[in-house]
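Quick one:
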Amino acid sequence: MTITATRSGLVSVNEIQLWYEVHGSGKPLVLLHGGFGAVDMFGPNLAALAEKSQVVGLDLQSHGHSPAADKPMTFETMADDLTALIEQLGLAKVDLMGFSLGGGVALRTAIQHPDVVDRLILVSTPTRRSGWYPEMTAGMDQMGPAVAEPMMQSPMYASYREIAPNVDDWPRLVEQVTTLMHEDYDWTADAAKLQMPVLIVAGDADGLPPRHAVEFFELLGGGRRDASWDRSGMSKHRLAILPGVTHYDINVHPLLATSVRSFLDEH
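Output:
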């Protein structure tokens, strides 16, 4: 099922422009895509989530419809930019969901601006760079501006070419993302202090091992005891390990929308 955005456009925040599009109605759910992607990276899950939520899809700095920005790309500044966009759109407090690179932005937003996040959904998102499998970090280390040309044969570039304001800005996007991918980080201590309900989602064949997702869940206070017959021992946080799902299809897998919807529908 596909749906048409009811509202979309560019918003100026912190000296850059970000593209947003709104689907459905209800409580706002902001979606943040992965690296080199755009809102459409969630495929049919966008429409599935919009059945009960006002889904606000954002194209991150220099991605998709958002014009290439002339500033370094960091998780911290993108979190500030997202918060400014939420405020400009008058959304107040939102549910926030991020995948991979977008998950890093979502996590930093919850850490830096907790007042704007009601519920947080982190998909394939480690608390630290070393949380990825070693082969994942090795692949990130090998990427640099020079991969812009070979990546023009990829589906990610094909999508970018269809929607970017200026397709010649592709090398700038690649340079910004690959530079960010080289940065080391460890947000474990900050993540442990999150107060809003958090859903951690990972595939059982993801780019991060299931044990890291469990570690993150336990860090928040989840999974430490039997919930008891009346659920009194259950924390407000949730963990979903999706079977037969990888880092490369979790964003479009129907189990993702099912898990997220269950979390958002909780009282």
